[in-house]
C-alpha cells in the first residue's frame, strides 16, 4: 500500500489530535495484530459538527458528513496508538445513528465513514459493517462510529 500519510495529503486531510475520552475508556486498544477503536463522535476542534436526531434535527447529508468526521477521529486514535503506517486493512466498522422515528437511512449515513476509509486505504479500506439506528447518543451526537483495524 502506498504511504498512508501521502494519501491523506493528496486528499487534503489532516489527522487531528486524538479526541479525549468523555467517560471511563481509552480511545483505542491494541491486542495482537488488531486495533479496536472506541466509538468516535463527530467532534472537530472540540465541537460537534451537528446535534440531534437524524431525520428531524439533522439531515441525512449532514449526518453523513458527521460520520466522515467520526472516521477521521478513528484514524487519529490509530495514529496516536500505533501509527497509521502499520494499518494492513480496515476489518469492520459499526455505525450508530441517532434516528428520528421512521428514519431508515442509517446505511447511507454510515457511508460517510466507509467511503473515507476507501479513499484513504483503497482495497484495504473495504470492510464488514453494521449501521444501527438508536434513540440517542452521547453528547446528543447524531452519529457514532467504532472500528477495528488489522495492523502489521
Automatic annotation (TrEMBL):
Reading the lineage from the top rank, the first entry is: Bacteria
Q: What is this protein called?
A: LysR family transcriptional regulator
Taxonomic classification, please?
A: Bacteria, Bacillati, Actinomycetota, Actinomycetes, Micromonosporales
A Pfam family (short name) is YjgF_endoribonc
Spell out the Gene3D superfamilies in the cross-references: RutC-like (3.30.1330.40)
Q: Which residues form a coiled coil?
A: none
Give all residue intervals belonging to the Endoribonuclease L-PSP/chorismate mutase-like domain: 6-143
Amino acid at each position: 500500500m502506498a504511504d498512508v500519510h501521502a494519501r491523506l495529503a493528496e486528499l487534503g486531510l489532516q489527522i487531528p489530535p486524538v479526541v479525549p475520552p468523555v467517560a471511563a475508556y481509552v480511545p483505542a486498544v491494541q491486542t495482537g495484530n488488531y486495533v479496536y477503536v472506541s466509538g468516535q463522535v463527530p467532534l472537530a476542534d472540540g465541537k460537534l459538527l451537528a446535534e440531534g436526531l437524524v431525520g428531524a434535527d439533522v439531515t441525512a447529508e449532514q449526518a453523513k458528513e458527521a460520520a466522515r468526521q467520526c472516521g477521521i477521529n478513528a484514524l487519529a486514535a490509530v495514529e496516536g496508538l500505533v501509527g497509521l503506517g502499520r494499518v494492513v486493512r480496515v476489518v469492520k466498522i459499526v455505525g450508530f445513528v441517532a434516528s428520528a422515528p421512521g428514519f431508515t437511512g442509517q446505511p447511507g449515513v454510515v457511508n460517510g465513514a466507509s467511503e473515507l476509509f476507501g479513499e484513504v486505504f483503497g482495497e484495504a479500506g473495504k470492510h464488514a459493517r453494521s449501521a444501527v439506528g438508536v434513540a440517542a447518543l452521547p453528547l446528543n451526537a447524531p452519529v457514532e462510529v467504532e472500528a477495528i483495524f488489522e495492523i502489521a
